[in-house]
Amino acid sequence: MANNLLAGKRGIIFGALNEQSIAWKVAQRCHQEGATFVLSNAPLAMRMGEINKLAEECSAPIIPADATVVEDLEKVFSGAVEQLGGKIDFVLHSIGMSPNIRKGKHYGELNYDWFQKTLDISALSFHKMLHVAEKQDALAEWGSVVGLSYIAAQRAFLDYTDMSQAKAVLESIARSYGQRLGQLKKVRVNTVSQSPTKTTAGTGISGFDAFYEYADRLSPLGNAPAEACADYCVSLFSDLTRYVTMQNLMHDGGFSTTGISEAMVDLLTQATSKEA
Prior knowledge:
Radius of gyration: 19 Å
Helix content: 40-55%
Largest sheet: 6 strands, parallel
Number of domains: 1
CATH topology: Rossmann fold
Strand order of the largest sheet: 2-1-3-4-5-6
Structural class: alpha/beta
CATH architecture: 3-Layer(aba) Sandwich
């Protein structure tokens, strides 16, 4: 149900690839809530995905950009301000990729050039976006910037490898830039730590299905779906959360604060009884 929470607001959404993408769901919800926005993704990702379909559905212009290249980001922010007719009220950073994970490298044999690429794509791009936005004075007062994160920034998870470090850097950037932009423009910067979600990126991680089921059994509310994450992002873009900033906000059905659940106890009891 739409409530016009974002009526009159302008935004930029980075990272929509296909209908499984969280950024795709966020774009749909922002459109329903009355926002206008620009979509952006890397040219390669655009060729792999279906972003034109989303752009047509949401009447959103597309500005291609490699988020690791400052000059590309300058074109996105200046182009968005021009095409949308004013400063930007909200930005979503939904970008993450690890060449090491794609190539099946375990944590003890990381390629360090690829590791640096992981950090550049998944975390430093967030800093570059905020740097460009500040330099161009492209963000409106009381604007909101959200980056999508994951609990592997705080905990060790098998097969998440160097993306764990990337998410930790992403969250640190949100705090540091949140302080800076809050003082300069009353702009808030947060990260959302989302449940494991069946996106193209998520399912590319080895063992994802098993961990998805584990998290779902452990979380009192179950895994938060992409649609619910989109709702949460809309609330953070809205004026209802004007004083929330520099936070890493858990959106995980209670996973992050649950020690063990009844479902997991039952499962482990069954497993150990069979072993006996």
